Each structure stands twice: as C-alpha cells, then as structure tokens.
Amino acid sequence: MKALEEKIRKEGKILPGNVLKVSSFLNQQIDVPFMMEMGREIAGRYAEEGVTKILTVESSGIAVAMAAAVPLGVPVVFAKKTDKNHRTGRVLCAEVASYTHGGKHFVEVDAAYLSPADRVLVVDDFLACGNAMVGLIDLIKQAGAHFVGAAVAIEKRYQGGGDKLRAEGMRIEALASIASVDPEAGIAFC
Amino acid sequence: MKALEEKIRKEGKILPGNVLKVSSFLNQQIDVPFMMEMGREIAGRYAEEGVTKILTVESSGIAVAMAAAVPLGVPVVFAKKTDKNHRTGRVLCAEVASYTHGGKHFVEVDAAYLSPADRVLVVDDFLACGNAMVGLIDLIKQAGAHFVGAAVAIEKRYQGGGDKLRAEGMRIEALASIASVDPEAGIAFC
Questions:
Q1: Mean of per-residue pLDDT scores for chain B
Q2: How high is the pLDDT of residue B87?
Q3: Partner residue opposite B77 with nearest CB, options A28, A58, A74
Q4: Which of B28, B36, B80 is most worth mutating to test chain A (most A CB atoms within 10 A of its CB)?
Q5: For residue B54, what are the contacts with CB-CB under 8 A and spacing of at least 6?
Q6: What letter would DSSP give residue B11?
Q7: Whether the complex's predicted ipTM surpasses the cut of 0.90
Q8: In this predicted model, what pLDDT tens digit does every residue of A57-97 receive, in sequence order?
Q9: pLDDT tens per residue across span B62-74
Q10: Among residues of chain A, what percentage have pLDDT more than 70?
Q11: Among B23, B24, B32, beta carbon nearest to A70
C-alpha cells in the first residue's frame, strides 16, 4: 500500500536499536481517516474468504482491527495480555515469547467469543518475530475455529516471523513490508 | 440511547459484587456496527464543539473512541496505563486512583500529541467513580489544551463520578446511565 509506505517515510522515526516508531499515526495517536483506509484495504484482500470474526490483541491492534471490521461487517474480539496462564474451560490462553522484554507472557480470550463455526482473520498493527501472531493463532486452534489468515499494517520482514508462517502455508498479508531500517540509510521497503 | 439500554438488558450479565459485564459487545468482543452507531451518537452530541482530537485510555476505550472519531473526522490519542510516573518534558503523566484494585496507577501520553491548540473530547467505555476520567482531564490540562467534555458508553451513575464532574461545570454525556444493578431486581436506568 503506497500511501502507507509514504506515511512511514514521512512520519516514522528511527530510534536507537533500529526501532521504528510510528506512534504519530498508528499507535498512541491514530490518524483515523487513514486508519479506515487501511481497514478497507485489508477488507478488500479478504473479501472472498467468508470472514466471520476478527481477532486482535490489546492495545494497539484494536484500532486496525476496528477499521477492517467496519467494511467486513464482522465483530472484533481482542485478546488480553496477562502475566499468568489463566486457561480454564471458559478462558482460552496461549503463551507468547516476548522478543523485546526477553521473558514471556500470555494472551487470553473468553472462550464464548470464538467458536468452531468462526472463520477468523487475525489483524494487528505490527508483525516482527511473529510471537504474538503465533499466540493468537493458537487461541483460534484451541477454540476449534478456522484461521483464515492474517493482515498487519507493517511487517518488519527482516525479523522473519511472517515468512516462517507463510512457509507453513498460512496467508499473511502486510500493507507495508520493511526490508531494513537504518538510522543513516533510512527505511527500505520490500 | 434506547438501543444501548436494550442491548445492556439483553446481553449484560450481573456478576458477584454487582459488577455489570458487557464484554459480549463493548469490550473483549466488539459489536462493530453497533459500536459505530454509538460513535455517531457521540459525534452528534458534540458536533458543534469544534473538537480537534479525541483522548481515551487503553484498552477498552479505543474502540468507542475510534467509532466517535470517524464521523467527527479527528485523530484519536490513547493514553497508556503504567505503574510508574514517567513524567518528563516529553511525557505527560497523571495519577489514577484505582477503585477496583485499591492501589493507584498512572496514565501517560506523549506530549507531542496534545497541544494548546487542541479542543479535546474524552471518550471511554465506562464511567463509574471517575478516577480514570479525572486522570485524562489532568493530561489535557498539563498540555494546555481545552477540555471540551466527555462521552462514555455507560455511566454507572450510582458511583457518583460523573455527577461530581458535572458539579464542577464539566459536560459529561453518557449513552446509557445506570441507576442501580442488582442480581434480583436487574438493571435500572436513570
């Protein structure tokens, strides 16, 4: 999505450790009309898939998920992050290895909101190592629902998470794919 | 908003401690078309106020804020919850006394996203004691921005937070106002 690449070039900031900060429009502050445009792009890519529900994770995934859910006309379910494994019959819970914090945490969702009849699209703001995505897909499997595919605003392709999932046959869409981030050379897209 | 009252009656669950659970459509799972309807209602109530930005707090405020921001055509900024006071020149931070957890926490936002030129509408899913709302209004004051008013999906009027703010001259709108919650008598609206 060219408009997103331009926005990242214009507003994205490269922080120490080659971290890309896009909190002026994607998380923390949300450029709502632009977010809705991204949502329409995601909805268009999955229009033929019979999606019944979008699954995301708090907090920064919620706005992108909402934006995609409006044109698809489906509910959003957001998983909550927690330090403890709360898995019971009524709560689905999956472990997420944390790249940035070194440790691990869990994502959980009320079992009532994902059913075997659901065709679930996973939506998030970022895809890097893919640990959060793997956790969300695990929740879908636990529910016996069908994982249709995933869509993220920005994939840091150089961190490999998306390609690992694609190699397993999963459909992973990214509106912008970043090949490299460097304070001097800037941002290169795939 | 009659449709919201009906939805609460139909889908809301009263948990021990007279806690009202509406996670089937408002938080955790989001009924997106209905959420957009609530957003239009909020936008209509503040249509003449020249709102330039919506401020909310993660996580469950984000979806309502997005829904109101679409018709108003303004950005959403969401404050983050944290255990520490990170206030610096670049981060605005306000204390929030916690009713449910007994302790306190902080809400913070990058100072770049609220400016003296902003006319800010605060949007959240719930208003009870008003502690979170007071913290968000504090952030707006710290930024030197203008607090236009607030809109919440559900006000638990019996907890008094909204009326305390109204008594100070603030405009606080609720799409549904609950007078009492009781496992036997059910939910009574104001």
A1: 95
A2: 84
A3: A28
A4: B28
A5: B65, B68, B69, B72, B74, B75, B76, B77, B120, B121, B122, B123
A6: H
A7: yes
A8: 999 999 999 999 999 999 999 999 999 898 888 999 999 98
A9: 999 999 999 999 9
A10: 98
A11: B32
Show the tokens assigned to A16.
């120490």
Structure tokens at B93: 């931070």
| Interchain CB distance below 8 Å, A76 and B30 | yes
Q: What is the pTM of this model?
A: 0.96
Please provide residue B99's backbone torsions phi and psi, each rounded to the nearest 5 degrees.
-75, -50
Predicted confidence at residue A100, as pLDDT, reads: 63
Minimum Cα–Cα distance from B114: chain A residue: A29
3-state secondary structure A74-124: CCEEEEEEECCCCCCCCEEEEEEECCCCCCEEEEEEEHHHCCCCCEEEEEE
- Tell me which of B30, B53, B54, B57 to substitute to probe the interface with A (most A C-beta atoms closer than 10 Å): B30
- Geometric angle at alpha carbon A65, from B50 and A15, rounded to 5°: 80
Asked if residue A11 lies in contact with residue A143, where contact means CB atoms within 8 angstroms, the answer is no
Question: How far is the alpha carbon of B108 from chain A, nearest alpha carbon, in Å?
Answer: 10
Tokens matching residue A176: 């912008």
* A32 to B76: CB separation less than 8 angstroms, yes or no: yes
Considering CB atoms only, which of A31, A59, A77 is closest to B75? A31
- Residue B81 and residue B106 in contact, taking contact as beta carbons nearer than 8 Å: yes
| CB within 8 Å of A168: residues ≥ 6 apart | none
With a CB-CB cutoff of 8 Å, which residues 15-44 of chain B face chain A? 23-25, 28-33, 35-36
Query: Is A75 within 8 Å of B29 when comparing Cβ atoms?
Result: yes
